[in-house]
Amino acid sequence: MEIAERRPLPLRLRRFRAGSLVPIVMLLAVLLVLIAVRQPNFLAPPSLLSFLGRSTPIILLAAGQYFVIVSGEFDLSVGSLVTAQVVVAARLIDSEPSRTWPVVALLLTFGILVGLINGLVTTRLRVPSFITTLGMFLILVGAVYLWSDGAPKGGLSEEFRRFGRRAFEDVPGLGRVQYALLVLLAVATAAVLLSRSDFGRTLVAVGGNPRTAELSGVRVWRAKTIAFVLSGLAAALAAILLGGYSGVSFQAGAGLEFAAITAVVLGGVALGGGRGSVFGAMLGALTLEMLFALLNFYGVSGALKSTVQGAIILLAVAVSSVRSTSR
Amino acid sequence: MRRTITVLAVGTLLVLTGCATDEPATAPSAAASGPAGSGTGEQSKFFVQADYDRELALLDATPAGPDGKPWEQALQPTMVDTAKFKKAGPHKICFSNAGLNNPWRQVGFKTMQAEVDAQRSRIEQFVHIDAEGKDQKQIADINDLLGKGCDALIVSPNTTATLTPAVESACKKGLPVIVFDRGVDTTCPVTFVNPIGGYGFGHVAAEFVSGNMKPGGKVLALRILPGVDVLETRWSAAKVAFDKAGVNVVGVEFTDGDPAKTKKIVNDYLQRYGTIDGVWMDAGAVAVAAVEAFLDAGQPVPPINGEDQLDFLKLWKDRKLTAIAPTYPTYQWRTPVIAALKILDGEQVPSPWKLPQPTITQENLAQYADPDMPPLHYAMCGCTDLPGYPDRWK
């Protein structure tokens, strides 16, 4: 693979090594310039920080999705998992502050469990992951409706909501620093460290060529299952932040799986696995949110969001196909 | 092989992306597509001038009936004779319910059950079938109930046109039929119970918002979804009021009744326009999310309307908002039971039975913002005198 990439590249597209951070950083820079032209005050620290805070859930999901995609799989269940978690949290907490921490612990466990099931079904029962996680998506959507009779019940306590809503006020030089930003910082650091660890490298190898990885003694099923668990865990954290931000909602997680996958692809991670960086995936999420903010400033309807996401996925896959077929 | 799977998966993804887009027909939100905000757009095709005029006139009408019991009052009633339905009790009353799929209907149904309990001496049996929001199920439900020896049938139709034949066939069976909430396209039921209606709601809210903001200010209108008559009328009356007041409606957006989406929309508008000077809503379910968007952005909350849901009333009281809450009162769920018993007694009843539609304002807020009731409760339930209050509604 390395040798193949060192050959002269006939297409302009191939100027950057696959998985390189250069394109995404450039795209982000272009968006920042466009936003600076249109809405200069957006770039002031307080408004930028609040933007970053609001983008945290999708960045977390992109980080989780990175581990799954780089190992050669998909996780379509994260959006419905977020919705399910928010609805479950509201019903269990039922506006009772003392139940906050037990429910937080339960949500994290629930996220890990869903990831574990996704992983085991995919690796042990050999069901393709987009079928496994699509099934999980439908199961969760159905279960939520069944359990709640179609209307959300209960309520989230203020203690639960503060994670996604509140902030350290008046931090010198920065102003309002949302709690979400701390979560983001912690998760981003952990994700980068993890992706550089042995496990992270193994995962990329598994995604690049599972057969070779298997033959060289890697327990592929275990690596992939852990990737799904990480994605589930990321969804649980995202659910806690999103539920906090907006309260009980049946659509808390609607469409998030696509946003996460688009972000990961935008960040230079190859669909099909084997190439990419988690930092790129998180930058991809930030870039995607930035793009939507820009569209909003230009008064473009939010309905265009899914079209933009679809176009990005198509384009990214087309680019990576062109690269690999001429390899 | 891997390539095939990837392509297949991406294909599936794209199809799903399409499916997951449930942002309902954003096309009609004309104002949303122009950056400068192009006002209120075209008038809704649901708008009927005569109905609008009548509803606005009813807002000022004095109701007939016992004081302090709006669920027994009627506006400009025309009485109908019901002697032919007179029957000795105790009775079996049947109810075909469109659904319990939102908090408003949950509160309403609890209120209806409590009314039945209050009348236990006269009601031997109360049969309730929930159509779960499905037309086909409700048609079958009504058919079922017709074979169960009901003395009176109450129907809260899921949709107007589709349920009309089912209601007509029930009328033909000779038992008294009472329709409430959403209507049907037939006059065969003995009476149709509902409050003043959507025009009244939308008008009251829009007048308040435009009257309490600075002249020429920017209004954001938030609607649940397009194409539902009771909601379309609310918006169309607001449009008339806003056009008359000459306010600048910078956006008309659909929220799907979802707090997450609502908060995002309000946030987007705050970023795009810097400030928003008034918020109009066609239903109160997401009013709290809209207010939170202003609070979290560190901005003053502009004049806004909600509904009589407790979470909004509490926030209004705590944060001292400039707000108003027109209602679509849940006490209307009591009236059909009362009507059924009157009809079975052979007493005259108003037809149509137009109930008063009170508005919660700063003056009477304290009376409704009961801190002990749950956030999704509707204050205008007229249920405080009913058996099991307040525990039944908690």
From TrEMBL, chain A:
It is found in: Cell membrane. The keyword Membrane applies. It is a multi-pass membrane protein. It holds the Pfam family BPD_transp_2. It comes from the Bacteria. The keyword Cell inner membrane applies. Keywords: Cell inner membrane, Cell membrane, Membrane, Transmembrane, Transmembrane helix, Transport. The chain crosses the membrane at residues 21-39, 51-69, 76-93, 99-120, 127-147, 177-194, 226-246, 252-271, 278-298. This is Autoinducer 2 import system permease protein LsrD. Its main location: membrane. Coiled coil: none annotated. InterPro entries: ABC_transp_permease (IPR001851). GO terms for cellular component: plasma membrane. GO terms for molecular function: transmembrane transporter activity.
